[in-house]
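Async update (no meeting this week)

Hi team, since we skipped the sync, here's where things stand on the single-chain job. The sequence we agreed to prioritize is pasted below, unchanged from the tracker. I ran it this morning and attached the output directly underneath so nobody has to dig for it. Comments welcome in thread, and please keep replies under the output.
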Amino acid sequence: MAAHEIEIILSRQWADSLSIPAFISDMEGNLIFYNGPAEEIFGKRFEDTGPMPQTEWSLMFNPRKTQDDSISPEEIALVRTLRTHQPAQGSLWIDSLDGKKHFLNVTSFPIIGMAGGNLGAIAIFWKNQE
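Output:
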């Protein structure tokens, strides 16, 4: 694992203890970690994918507004949080790595360092039952 601020390390430990899916990114949107419940939705264990740049995971998971319509980055809760440093909510479709499509509700919030700097964001999400 690359060297990270203590707040990112603690966020990863916290996410690992959650019973809901969680995704952690740095300030550039690069994937740092996703937890066990997220593995079930993404269709692959984090140990098998590892950290990845935003350009790679956005292509892999193909986030969309509807099953057929693309979504602008500003409509993705995690991206809004990274840009505004404020919590955000939204819904989107993704493709899992095992070929399934999922409609997700997402809530994201910033990771703020002890010195007050913005370090990244955490997105928690769950399948939309509509």
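Quick observations from my side:
The longest helix spans residues 6-16.
The mean pLDDT is 94.
Reply here if anything looks off.
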